[in-house]
Design a protein that fits this description.
This is TPR repeat-containing protein. With 312 residues, the protein is mostly helical. It has helices spanning 2-17, 21-32, 39-55, 59-72, 77-89, 93-106, 111-123, 127-140, 145-157, 161-174, 179-191, 195-208, 213-225, 229-242, 247-259, 263-276, 281-293, 297-311.
Length: 312
Amino acid sequence: MKDDINKLWKKYVNALENHDYERSLNLMDEMLNVEGLSSKEISELYAEKGKLLRKMGKNEEALKAYDKALELNPNYILAYLYKGILLIHLGRLEEAERVFLKLHELNPSDLVCKYIIAYVLKRLGKYSEAQKIFDDVVERHPQAFIAWLMKGKLLHREGKLKKALECFEKALEINPKDYELLYHKGEILLKLGKYCEALECFKVLHEKNDRDISSLMHIIEILVLLGRISEAREYVEKALKLNPDDPMIYFFYGIILNKLGRYEEAIKYFDKALELNPNFPDAWQGKAVALEKLGKIEDALECYNRALDIYE
């Protein structure tokens, strides 16, 4: 019996490596028909069959295979995991939630399982329940980087910016080289009006990757807010070299020129922004300001009205 299984398994693995899934499936069925296998061994084969069926795009059959594996071995952690992940892939989140809660009962100390449950709850819109999971994780595991990160993202989404910032700062203490996290921190500081601290975050990111246009745009925005116009202009010119088709960059250049009193030049940049995106209300408004300063009131009113139409 064991020799038969071993031979069939080698053939099965070889067929898998050659992407011959139909032959693999036939070999799997042969293995399942070998006499003398224990319930545990049959359960493991059904779980493997489920993985194969998923590769073949036969998702409903894969779920049935996982169910058979769990019927034979109700404590089979990997079968629950495979089934739960497939249900998430299929968008059947309520079912996935039940599967992972059962998995959590079997293995309550598994952080990955907790993270997946929280992810499913978040997808279901059960944000407070997801938050409770992360609260529990960070209380039990203060160095759990992912939990601090995800807790911060949830709080950020709820508009609880100061609490979110605390979570991101805690996560950065654990992993100070996580640049995505530093970006989130910069965004929150910007929203809180802590412009100098936000600027520091985005400048670190820009130094790390000087082609990161998102950080560059935030630097420009903050410098304009701080009134550091000459410095902002230098960064705008860098941004234009990186992405000459981004209307936001031309918009910021127009804003800078407005602040310098160079309204004719500013209009050219607002026009370029509007050429790239005619439904850009801020660019219409910026152009209106420049026209008003030049005494072209009717033209300015027309631009203001275009902006209002888009906002509505």
